Sequence to fold (118 residues):
Amino acid sequence: MEDIKFSSSLSQQEMKENFAGFDFFDGLMEGLTEALAHSKGKATAETFSRKRSLPDVNVAEIRSALNMTQRSFASMLGVSPRTVESWEAGRTTPTPTAKKLLYLIREDHRLAQRLMEA
Fold:
């Protein structure tokens, strides 16, 4: 079996900063506890609820800071322009995964450029 290789455009220092305060052991234990509860038939909706809150994001502010139209922003994210419009109007909210991605884009605009190139 071939060894898995990890590569990143981030420096070692940037990676350390990104994961500062994240306890991998606690995350692993939480996942194992959830799996055990599931295997014993004791899993409930609360078992799988995440204790960490999702970041607050203002889609319109992020898009505006990037000087992007709703159409180009939607294309970058892989969603429809109508979805971006709905998020900005407050009719719907981004999925947890989308919220995390939007948060990362807000914190580092270079990620938006990389997504546009992908």
